[in-house]
Design goal:
This protein is mainly alpha-helical. Among the domains are: 253-320, Glutamyl-tRNA Synthetase, domain 2 (Orthogonal Bundle), CATH 1.10.1160; 321-363, Helicase, Ruva Protein, domain 3; 368-467, Arc Repressor Mutant, subunit A, CATH 1.10.10.350. It has helices at residues 18-33, 52-65, 80-92, 103-115, 131-139, 187-197, 213-223, 253-259, 263-271, 286-292, 307-320, 323-330, 339-349, 358-363, 385-401, 407-420, 425-437, 445-452, 454-467, and strands spanning 5-8, 37-42, 74-75, 96-99, 145-148, 155-160, 164-169, 177-179, 202-206, 229-233. The strands form 4 sheets. The chain has a 3-stranded parallel beta sheet with strand order 1-2-3, with helices on one face. The protein starts with a strand and ends with a helix.
């Protein structure tokens, strides 16, 4: 039985995006589920758009998600001689030919075809050159590309593991360029040669590559090789059904790490973008995904990229962290301070965190000497400035003389005091909480006071009285 081998083959023309990460994840899961191997190949033949930092982002991003590959990274720029040899093989067999047409002629040709209502495709002008004419052009160094000679008739059929049977008519296919005028291969030639050389059995990629698939099948046939099985994934859309903006998801994968998403959350989220596990389970480890994943359960409908769902996954995994681990994750977003103090702070906010980076805005008041907020924020509902000031003035000596400064001790004492004074909880606890945090929303005042300590608590209550 043939060993299943998959690959992720990004082009380093930009950083790894979330859609590419899903392709890599599905390829990895399919290989591991079948006891096979997953490879990483960098398709860096487009030297005009090459970005050196992009390759590093691929490797860093995949490692962050927990995805590792067999062997060394394959780089196509190191294999140009191999592609030239294969292109020459096609030239020698008449299955490819040199094309010397200028960009101006090609544009004119396509413009004429469009005006006639035809799909633009190369008209095989250079296929009619004699061997002597071809040789003369080459000797004179006339810029040339190498094109695949596609038959005018025939049908290409594949069975896509996601989409089922698909047919393509040869008459609709363009004679694709295999080698560019700079001597570098195009994606089509290099990808097919490398997939064959690496014994790739399954090619999992985005649906934008469907139109290229028949050209790849024809290349496999031209070389006399067996083609792999294809699976084309639907692209993400936003909640309105349109193309994703950068804010919604078409941004670098590593930006999600910077924003404070955990890799487990991102893996779960992207796994569910198009795949249905046929169960009610929503939380999987990477190992559990390997066992559960099936390409037959990948949907053809465009999955909706919902950041709120990603936040939901992330908050779940944040709540599972120990305080020590959460401190490690949160420290990049917090000022340098005593670790014991930081643990107390993040423990208060753990339940409210959607992203690790949220900790900055949620806890900034713990690190300030003076809080800035409007006096009106201290006033509870239908109360007044005067009544609020009077409540805080009565409360301050109670706090100053209280000894049990734990959150539980403070809560017991204050609730008892509120009842004895015949006040409403909101009339006391709302202005106290605002005085301690300066925010409309924060943890309960007992918990805040316990972390801030008696001196800072009393100072902030006095500052609120002064503000009123």
């Amino acid at each position: 039985m043939t060993k299943v081998r998959t690959r992720f083959a990004p082009s380093p023309t930009g950083h790894l995006h979330i859609g590419g990460a899903r392709t890599a994840l599905y390829s990895y899961l399919w290989a591991k589920k079948n006891g096979g191997e997953f490879l990483l190949r960098i398709e860096d033949t487009d030297r005009t758009r090459y970005q050196p930092a992009a390759e590093a982002s691929f490797i860093d991003g995949l490692h962050w998600l927990g995805i590792y590959w067999e062997g060394e990274v394959i780089r196509q720029s190191e294999r140009t001689a191999v592609y030239r040899a294969h292109a020459q093989q096609l030239l020698d067999s008449g299955k490819a030919y040199y094309c010397f047409c200028t960009m101006e002629r090609l544009e004119l040709m396509r413009d004429i075809q469009r005006k006639k209502g035809r799909a633009p495709k190369y008209d095989k002008t250079c296929l009619r050159l004699t061997p002597t004419e071809v040789q003369q052009n080459l000797e004179q160094h006339v810029p040339a590309v190498i094109r695949l000679n596609i038959a005018a008739e025939g049908t290409i059929r594949i069975t896509d593991l996601v989409r089922g049977p698909i047919e393509f008519k040869c008459e609709e296919l363009d004679d694709q360029v295999l080698v560019k005028s700079d001597g570098f291969p195009t994606y089509h030639l290099a990808s097919v040669v490398d997939d064959h050389a690496s014994a790739i059995t399954h090619v999992i990629r985005g649906e934008e590559w469907i139109p290229s698939t028949p050209k790849h099948i024809l290349l496999y046939q031209a070389f006399g090789w067996e083609a792999p099985v294809f699976a084309h994934l639907s692209l993400f859309i936003n909640k309105g059904g349109g193309k994703l903006s950068k804010r919604e998801g078409a941004t670098s994968l590593l930006d999600y790490r910077t924003q404070g998403y955990l890799p487990a959350a991102v893996v779960n989220f992207i796994a569910m973008l198009g795949w249905n596990p046929k169960s009610t389970e929503e939380f999987f480890t990477l190992e559990q995904l390997v066992h559960a994943f099936e390409l037959s359960q990948v949907n053809t409908a465009n999955p909706i990229f919902d950041t709120e769902k990603l936040d939901w996954y992330n908050s779940h995994y944040i709540r599972q962290l120990s305080i020590d681990d959460l401190l490690t994750y949160c420290q990049p977003y917090l000022p340098t301070a005593d670790p014991v103090y930081l643990k107390q702070i993040i423990a208060l906010e753990q339940e409210r965190l959607k992203k690790l980076s949220d900790i900055t805005a949620l806890t900034d008041f713990f690190f300030l000497d003076v809080l800035q907020y409007e006096p009106a924020l201290l006033v509870w509902k239908k109360s007044t400035v005067e009544a609020t000031r009077a409540v805080l003035q009565k409360l301050l000596p109670v706090l100053a003389t209280h000894s049990d400064w734990s959150a539980t001790g403070l809560e017991t004492a204050l609730i008892g005091w509120i009842k004895a004074q015949e006040l409403g909880n909101g009339d006391v606890l709302w202005p106290l909480r605002v005085a301690l945090s300066g925010k409309k929303a924060s943890p309960p005042p007992f918990a805040l006071a316990a972390v801030l300590g008696k001196d800072r608590t009393c100072q902030r209550v006095q500052a609120a009285i002064d503000l009123l």
